[in-house]
Amino acid sequence: MISAGETLRLAARALRRNKLRSFLTALGIIIGVGAVIFMQSIGEGAKARVRDQIESAGTNIVMVFSGSSQGPGGRGGAGSQPSITWEDLRAIQTELSSVAAVAPQINSSQPVISETNTWNTQITGTTPDYFTIRNWPVSDGQMFTASDQASAAKNAVIGQTAAQNLFGPGVDPVGQIIRIRDAPFTIVGVLDTKGQNAMGQDQDDVVFIPMSAFQTRMQRGLGKFVPGRIFVSAVSPEAIPRARQEITTLLRERHRIAADQEDDFSTSTMAEMTSMLTSTQETVTLLLSSIALVSLVVGGIGVMNIMLVSVTERTREIGIRMAVGAQPADIMAQFLIEALVLAAIGGALGVLFGWGFGHLLAPRFGWSMETRGSIVIAALAVSAGVGIVFGIYPARKASRLDPIDALRYE
Amino acid sequence: MALIELRDLGKIYHSGETEFAALRDVNLQIERGEFVAITGSSGSGKSTLMNILGCLDSPSKGSYLLADRDVAKQSRIELARVRNEFIGFVFQNFNLLARTSAAENVELPLIYAKVPPAERHRRAKEALERVGLAHRAGHHPSQLSGGQQQRVAIARALVTSPPLILADEPTGNLDSATSIEIMKLLTALQKSGMTIVFVTHEPDIAAYAGRKLLLKDGVVVSDERQKQPDLETT
């Protein structure tokens, strides 16, 4: 048998001789591979976006909720039964080595009145650490401070959406007075845009006030329990599981929960939410990619069809080659490699096509694209496989021709 | 030893129930350097004999020794090797690859003989020179006349320097002036030591051979030596 390089040359020459036909045949593969790459990239992009949104919550976060209520009416949601005390919060902050910072987040939906507008928004009471944990700087003005917290100062930090709706464009909110439940608050800072969270909520439609002010103005007095959730940041991403474990142990101890009893609180990490939300995305991506894969198979059938036509058309050529000494294996390899080259070139162009098409469309429709190297390699491997699978039958047919009949073929 | 030795060679074709003996008990020896014409009417078995001599087909019985090796019962793979190494073919309809240059057509047997490219180009050029077509090496068959195409085919047949050249009606598609040129070329090759066997049904073409076989109903009915025309004087 002649060498692979020689066979490759023969195949390349045959494909060049019929450029348009070669291109149209490869087009089936191009579209198939392109569709797979496109679907996978869009799917990956959507997943990455969900991941980003979840990560926009902050870094290294463990959230702690009060327990679920257990009553005759059934079981309530997490946090429905207050169980975590302010003392617990302080203990988490001071006693655990894996914890960097702790901040409460207590929400209340209230109308807020500016000089020009009234806007229903979320009032959140928290401490200055909250913005560090959530990695959320001000774009204008400044944060409220620890002394604001200590003195229950009526200072507020406001999100972009709330600022827009309260003051409209062109007005600097910093220094303005807003009224919440008849109490005047001075806006000291405007936060950076945070965007939607993983649930699709606008995280910028919010007014933050010091926890102490929240307790006196919204709650009318100090309670024993934290009436919201607690954001904890671990010292590093690797420390997240350890922080969660330590928090659980600490709270079980403090709440005197026996070994056989369930926790009266719950914790969750961003990794859990990510995997929960991305699993749906994955299903959709898988579904769309299988449809794309079907079109790749159809492309493969196109390759087989053209190779069969080619074998018939070139029967005389096959006869000549056999007469001058080509082995059946040489003929087989020549046609098989032709199919393989066709499919591989189609695959490579398909990758470019799917990638380019995606990048063209994605910005218009607000999709994000993320093309993984492993998908590109897999797509190329599959298209080469398609070339071999669909090329083998025509190639065998060619190699089994009888030289006398082939030479006589008109 | 003879280059070709056929002993009791027969070829039977089956079509359903009926059998047809295309060749029966052919005994034949052809020495190296001979120039042999095989003649006969259509259906006499001359094409079958050519196919078997060219190792494109296997006999049903008897033996065929080509350059001392028995090729009667060899596999397709072996026969392909024998064709490549021992035989050059010239066909009535030239059988060149279309849209492929003359030089590349001539190189074709060398590809399957695994000759490296540089050496291939050199030998193809030499072969084209021998048939007087070196200046047409880059032309495609469609750009060449019938006579030139047949010269390219002859160059392809001799490029591997095979001991045997088989030509099946080499002048069948050519006018008489071109036919004479081709026969002169074949005669020149024979003078340089090659063995040439060709099939023809034209007596004046057969006259170029040094030996004339007549086939009838699958049997060699006459085998005559004859004087080759003296080409230097014509």
How would you describe what is shown here?
The complex is a heterodimer of chains A (410) and B (234). By secondary structure, chain A is of the alpha+beta class. Chain A has two domains: 4-53 and 275-408, no CATH class; 82-263, no CATH class. Chain A contains 13 helices and twelve strands. In chain A, strand 2 and strand 3 form a beta hairpin. In chain B, the strands form two sheets. A six-stranded mixed β-sheet of chain B has the order 6-7-8-3-9-10, with helices on both faces. Chain B has a four-stranded antiparallel β-sheet with strand order 2-1-4-5, covered by helices on one side. In chain B, strand 4 (61-66) and strand 5 (69-70) form a beta hairpin. The longest helix of chain B has 16 residues, at 176-191. Chain B is globular, with a radius of gyration of 18 Å. Classes of the chains: A alpha+beta (410), B alpha/beta (234). At the A-B interface, helix 1, helix 10, helix 11 and helix 13 of A face helix 2 and helix 3 of B.
Entry keywords:
heterodimer; A: about 400 residues; alpha+beta; 2 domains; six-stranded mixed beta barrel; two-stranded antiparallel ribbon; 12 strands; about 15% strand; B: about 230 residues; alpha/beta; Rossmann fold; six-stranded mixed sheet; four-stranded antiparallel sheet; 7 helices
